[in-house]
Amino acid sequence: MTSLRDPLTLPCGQVLPNRIMKAALSEWLGDKQNSPDERIDRLYTSWSQGGYGLIVTGNLMVDRTQLGEPGNVVIEDGCTCTFFPAWDGSTLRSSGLPVATSIGRAHWTPPMSPLGVRSPEGW
After folding, report:
1. What is the pLDDT of residues 71-108, one digit of tens each?
2. CA torsion angle for 5, 115, 65, 92 (degrees, to 10)?
3. Which of 15, 37, 60, 87 is 20 to 30 A removed from 120 (C-alpha atoms)?
4. Pairing of the two strands 8-9 and 15-16
């Protein structure tokens, strides 16, 4: 019988050390300029030590005019963010954990659903 502690091989070949995943959240920890700060670093450092097999980052917004909610972290062209130790992966990379980034833009729907199935509305 398969256990949550057992490794999981994804279709792409990536092997997760176990079957426990930290799902994407909207942490609301962007500063007034929607940049990450030490709170994000502390949070992801803590999660990196939590025994997860995969960590999916929170909503990383790509357009500050289209925030999902206040406090979203935003990365845009020309971003001058100087505090990205956790979000650029260095904190998580040093833990050896697989990391996936949840990229978001409010009021935008991808052309394909997450399962690759087109809906009648065109997404």
Report:
1. 888 887 766 665 555 555 566 667 778 888 887 776 65
2. 20
3. 60
4. antiparallel
Contact 40, 82 (CB under 8 A): no
Alpha-carbon distance of 58 to 27, in angstroms, equals 6
What is the reported pLDDT for 108?
A: 59
Domain boundaries, the chain: 28-104
Cβ-contact 72, 28 below 8 angstroms: yes
Minimal CA–CA distance to 86: which of 43, 51, 31, 27?
43
E strands in the chain: 8-9, 15-16, 21-22, 54-61, 73-74, 99-104
Report the SS3 class of residue 75.
Answer: coil
N residues, the chain? 123
The CA distance from 2 to 29, in Å, is 36
Is residue 92 within 8 Å of residue 48, measured between CB atoms?
A: yes
